Amino acid sequence: MTQHPSPTGGAPHSGAPARSMLSYLKWAFIVTGLGLALGGWLGWTTTGTLAGMLTILFICAVLAVLEISLSFDNAIVNANKLKSMTPIWQRRFLTWGILIAVFGMRIVFPLLIVVISARIGPWEAITLAAARPEEYAHIMEEAHLPIAAFGGTFLMMVGLSFFFDHEKDVHWVQWLERRMARHATIRGIEVAIVLVTVLIFSRLLDGADTQVFFSSAIWGLLTFLLVEVLGGLLDSTQKAVKGAAQGGLGAFLYLEVLDASFSFDGVIGAFALTQNLFIIAIGLGIGAMYVRSMTIMLVENGTLTEYRYLEHGAFYAIIALSVIMFMQSLVHIPEVITGLGGAALIGVSLWSSIRWNRVERGNAPASG
Asked: Can you tell me where the transmembrane regions are (predicted)?
């Protein structure tokens, strides 16, 4: 078998042939084929008609596109974290991590919400999803408020932590990011901003929703801080061989919680298209594989280094997504707006990066 660069091991080895985009997407295409075949079989067995089968195939395809559009910024953030991890932990994240992402967040997580919310057993939740999907979807909708508060808080902390960094010296939106980097030395400034935002949104809710939103948001904040503390404690012993592996574990846990936060919006939004848990798992699982492929491509090709503002666009998209999740506690916001908004921010940052590269090449002295 041809030896390519390590699955996430940074830039390709010198002398190794550059991988084509199709080679990165190979497994995503395989999973797409298997997923659509499974979706077609599910559609035929549940409806018994060609039209019903084609409808379910279409829903699976739309869900996959929804997941890709919502999670492209997730791929960029994953790549940003992966490039500082050891190769062995990079591979572990892209194998075990993706299994957790696909099966854990797209199948187990919705079931767990129903188990907790309805106070029923796991097998009863599976039976409910298969036999009474309308009731299952209703329980998921009822759980949307705490999910939005938890995920929105965690993602806002992720986004603000990127910009409130006094060592950050590359700025896309100069007037804003310079000020944020300058004030990064103020201890806990990101936490203060997030708490003020949470207080504002909790005050806009009524009755018991206020307490549910606030307590869920606090748990989201605590989860971020605990993961950061855990990563710091593990990374502090990174000089030892065992410690290096533990440091990778801290980053691994961070990425898993981050992926979970990104998945909240897609899983809940999927119920607007179908109430069938298994169709949702197929569609979102296909999309998650493309996110994995994009992550590997970004790391191996050094794309984040080549396009200097791409990370900025992704983290702005994360902050925008966190605000949207907060706003969804008050009003419904179509998932297409969430996906297109994030894609637009990343697209503009990519265009700015390309323009900056052209200016730099134009200013470079001619070799003589």
From this structure: 24-44, 50-72, 93-118, 143-164, 184-205, 211-231, 243-262, 268-291, 312-330, 336-354
Distance CA 55, CA 49 (A): 10
User: How many CB atoms are located within 10 Å of the residue 45 CB?
Assistant: 10
251, 85 Cβ separation under 8 angstroms: yes
Query: Angle at which helices 277-300 and 109-118 pack, to 10 degrees?
Result: 130
Contact status, residue 61 vs residue 283, Cβ threshold 8 Å: yes
| Two tokens, residue 129 | 């999803």
User: Tokens 């080549």 label which residue?
Assistant: 306
Q: Directed axis angle between helix 122-131 and helix 277-300, to 10°? A: 110
Name the least confident of 16-20, 81-85, 295-299: 16-20
Share of the chain above pLDDT 70, in %: 81
In angstroms, the first-to-last Cα distance of the chain is 43
Q: In 3-state terms, what secondary structure has residue 142?
A: helix
Question: How many CB atoms are located within 10 Å of the residue 331 CB?
Answer: 6
* DSSP structural state of residue 281: H
Task: Locate 159 and state its tokens.
Answer: 């986004």
97-128 per-position pLDDT tens digit: 777 766 677 677 777 777 877 777 878 888 88
Task: Provide the total of helices (H) and of strands (E) in the chain, helices listed first.
Answer: 17, 0
Max CA-CA distance within the chain?
A: 75
Q: How many residues does the chain have?
A: 368
- The single residue listed with the structure tokens 């590359």 is 170
The angle at the Cα of 104, spanning 37 to 232, to the nearest 5 degrees, equals 140
